[in-house]
């Protein structure tokens, strides 16, 4: 009975002690398990575009076990804690062994830290060699194992393990020391990442490459002995040199990444394509090399069917201070120059004011105090609307804008979901020539609407948005949008850009040569290029056609090896010659006076001898004052009488044109002998 009583007391005492120990462990205060990680910006396929350090300049990146090569875990457990999956946080066998060695030698000879204990130390930033610290780690490790599963403990290790300098966690270490994600690792790479946390500062590859190599090789040899990897792999990988320095973190799409991170911490998934983005950034730097240190460039390329931006280059170099490379010129408001003209023509087609084959006057004209001039200062007389757009003439498009009303043009821009910046009150006729502030992104969105048959949807750069739910608005009818595209596709491309007809594009140059533009689209993609100085100072000699257009075609060529064809005309499109058009569409302008003004002398095709007085001109009808042009050049203005002499010396063929005060015109072609 006595022995039984003793046994009962012992069992009760053991149970009591166990319960008290359990209470002791359960009462352990667990440190914060959630830690700040580097904000990340990724592309449409999950590839890293850019990451940012957290507080104190530390690299600590989010990673989960399923993002890591299984070989790393096999090596880590075999090398650091082979009974990790079976012990409760403390390995009693290893602890007893380490304690015995310490008693015999009077100092700690071998460690007994489990991976869970290492996590406990990292959570509290504790010491490793003092018994007080060890006991605290053991208590916290036991508590962690009761609240977390093994995968969650491994995830904490992956995030917090030190790898030297400002590098913390496996993923940051893999990117910085190996230049790659840890999803696929060679035995040598996995061994290096296993060995570094044991002595992160003394084994830093950038400062102590030989120590890093030796530590890595020790892991390889032990892994071969444990059967984790073949001995042949250990021996061959031991010959590989260790990394000699830090690899640069990806820094793609810096401007777009800054915009994303400004919206909040964490991971940001964009619609960009990493490879295309990298290629276009490199192309922009190469293209701008030697063109002036203060010049910058911006480029946006999108899928006009989905509205997804696939690449966005905000400057030639984010770090270039001379060119203010930190300024994102894709979002800077600038004057678009002539790149708004296609919208004006499309609106005129929609409202029945003109057709691509309609004749329109390119002659001196004045609207109140506003007298627009062509870029080259010359006049072409009467010519088809199609040709007026291709030549990017100013006077015809202002005539159309006056007929439309600038407010209707502004309304169309708003339907295209852009935010035009107009200074000085209500918009005037100069709006058609770039008298408004628009960003490159907005211009690409406008041209995407032209490419989509006149339907605008907002361009987007954040992934995860259902394109079917994106708002849409009709800017032009599909016929008018096709007519504009058909006209622009006939423009001669830049040298070495291939044959015409593959890209519908338009160039533009703002007043004072401050901005050079080129925008265009294929059957699938739309792109825009801006070149200029961020501070808005002039760039003498800069023209959109010469400077920006070649880069536009190169950019489109990077995303399409063979340009996807432009769409065919909609069935309702009126494809006829001018003579087959309704009479009201054959000419644009005041139709009651066009027929009344006649050049009665000289007759068409006349051969005249040049005299000192010039060529006599006789008119019938029209409203004075008259303007006289020869081959598009103004010879005289303010003529009040219907009879006068044209100061032509000859010899040769000449086309004479006379325009009256209401815009009616008459012309003849003659030969001077």
UniProtKB/TrEMBL annotation:
Superkingdom of origin: Bacteria
Stretch forming the signal peptide: 1-17
GO CC term, one of those recorded: outer membrane-bounded periplasmic space
Biological process according to GO: peptidoglycan biosynthetic process; proteolysis
GO molecular function, one term: penicillin binding
Ranges where the Penicillin-binding C-terminal domain occurs: 595-670
Family: In the C-terminal section; belongs to the transpeptidase family.
Enzyme class: transferase
Domain called Glycosyl transferase family: residue spans: 55-223
Name of protein: peptidoglycan glycosyltransferase
Keywords: Carboxypeptidase, Glycosyltransferase, Hydrolase, Multifunctional enzyme, Protease, Signal, Transferase
EC number: 2.4.99.28
Catalysed reaction equations from the record: [GlcNAc-(1->4)-Mur2Ac(oyl-L-Ala-gamma-D-Glu-L-Lys-D-Ala-D-Ala)](n)-di-trans,octa-cis-undecaprenyl diphosphate + beta-D-GlcNAc-(1->4)-Mur2Ac(oyl-L-Ala-gamma-D-Glu-L-Lys-D-Ala-D-Ala)-di-trans,octa-cis-undecaprenyl diphosphate = [GlcNAc-(1->4)-Mur2Ac(oyl-L-Ala-gamma-D-Glu-L-Lys-D-Ala-D-Ala)](n+1)-di-trans,octa-cis-undecaprenyl diphosphate + di-trans,octa-cis-undecaprenyl diphosphate + H(+)
Penicillin-binding protein transpeptidase domain sequence ranges: 298-511
Pfam families noted in UniProt: BiPBP_C, Transgly, Transpeptidase
SUPFAM superfamilies: beta-lactamase/transpeptidase-like (SSF56601), Lysozyme-like (SSF53955)
InterPro entries linked: Beta-lactam/transpept-like, Glyco_trans_51, Glycosyltr_51/Transpeptidase, Lysozyme-like_dom_sf, PBP_1c, PBP_C, PBP_transglycosylase, PCN-bd_Tpept
Family annotation (PANTHER family): BINDING PROTEIN TRANSPEPTIDASE, PUTATIVE-RELATED, PENICILLIN-BINDING PROTEIN 1C
Functional pathway: Cell wall biogenesis; peptidoglycan biosynthesis
């Amino acid at each position: 009975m006595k022995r039984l009583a003793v046994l009962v007391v012992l069992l009760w005492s053991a149970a009591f002690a166990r319960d008290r120990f359990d209470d002791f462990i359960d009462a352990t205060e667990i440190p914060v398990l959630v830690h700040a990680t580097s904000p990340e910006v990724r592309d449409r396929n999950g590839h890293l575009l850019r990451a940012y350090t957290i507080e104190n300049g530390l690299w600590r990146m989010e990673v989960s076990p399923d993002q890591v090569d299984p070989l790393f875990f096999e090596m880590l457990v075999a090398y650091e804690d082979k009974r990790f999956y079976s012990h409760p946080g403390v390995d009693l066998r290893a602890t007893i062994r380490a304690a015995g060695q310490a008693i015999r030698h009077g100092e700690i000879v071998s460690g007994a830290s489990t991976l869970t204990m290492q996590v406990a130390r990292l959570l509290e930033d504790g010491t490793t060699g003092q018994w007080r610290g060890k006991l605290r780690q053991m208590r916290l490790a036991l508590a962690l194992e009761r609240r977390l599963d093994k995968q969650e403990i491994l995830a904490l290790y992956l995030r917090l393990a030190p790898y030297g300098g400002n590098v913390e966690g496996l993923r940051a270490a893999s990117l910085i020391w190996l230049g790659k994600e840890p999803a696929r690792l060679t035995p040598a790479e996995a061994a290096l990442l296993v060995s570094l946390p044991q002595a992160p500062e003394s084994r830093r590859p950038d400062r102590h490459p030989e120590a890093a190599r030796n530590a890595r090789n020790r892991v390889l040899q032990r892994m071969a002995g444990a059967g984790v990897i073949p001995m042949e792999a250990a021996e061959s990988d031991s010959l590989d040199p260790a990394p000699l320095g830090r690899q640069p973190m990806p820094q793609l799409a810096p401007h777009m990444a800054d915009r994303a991170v400004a919206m909040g911490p964490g991971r940001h998934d964009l619609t960009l394509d990493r490879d295309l983005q990298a290629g276009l950034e490199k192309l922009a730097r190469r293209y701008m090399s030697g063109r002036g240190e203060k010049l910058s460039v911006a480029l946006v390329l999108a899928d006009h069917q989905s509205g997804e931006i696939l690449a966005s280059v905000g400057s030639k170099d984010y770090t270039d201070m001379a060119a203010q490379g930190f300024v994102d010129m894709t979002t800077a408001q600038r004057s678009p120059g002539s790149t708004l003209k296609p919208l004006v023509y499309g609106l005129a087609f929609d409202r029945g004011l003109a057709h691509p084959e309609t004749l329109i006057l390119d002659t001196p004209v004045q609207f109140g105090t506003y007298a627009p001039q062509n870029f080259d200062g010359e006049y072409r007389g009467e010519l088809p609307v199609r040709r007026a757009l291709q030549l990017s003439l100013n006077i015809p498009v202002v005539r159309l804008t006056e007929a439309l009303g600038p407010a209707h043009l502004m309304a169309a821009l708003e339907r295209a979901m852009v935010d035009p910046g107009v200074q000085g009150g209500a918009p005037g006729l100069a709006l058609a020539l770039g008298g408004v502030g628009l960003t490159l992104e907005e211009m690409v969105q406008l041209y995407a609407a032209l490419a989509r048959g006149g339907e605008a949807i907002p361009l987007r750069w954040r992934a995860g948005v259902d394109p079917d739910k994106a708002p849409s608005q009709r800017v032009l009818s599909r016929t008018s949008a096709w007519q504009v595209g058909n006209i622009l596709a006939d423009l001669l491309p830049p040298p070495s850009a291939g044959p015409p007809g593959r890209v519908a594009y338009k160039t533009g140059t703002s007043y004072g040569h401050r901005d050079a533009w080129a925008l265009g689209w294929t059957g699938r993609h739309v792109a825009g290029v801006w070149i200029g100085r961020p501070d808005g100072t002039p760039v003498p000699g800069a023209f959109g056609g010469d400077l920006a257009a070649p880069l536009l075609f190169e950019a489109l060529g990077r995303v399409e090896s063979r340009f996807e064809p432009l769409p065919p005309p909609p069935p309702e499109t009126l494809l006829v010659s001018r003579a087959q058009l309704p009479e009201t569409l054959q000419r644009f302008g005041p139709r009651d006076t066009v027929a009344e003004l006649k050049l009665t002398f000289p007759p068409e095709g006349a051969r005249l001898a040049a005299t000192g007085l010039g060529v006599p001109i006789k008119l019938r009808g029209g409203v004075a004052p008259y303007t006289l042009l020869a081959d598009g050049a103004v010879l005289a203005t303010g003529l009040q009488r219907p009879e006068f002499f044209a100061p032509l010396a000859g010899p040769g063929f000449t086309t004479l044109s006379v325009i009256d005060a209401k815009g009616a015109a008459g012309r003849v072609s003659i030969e001077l002998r």
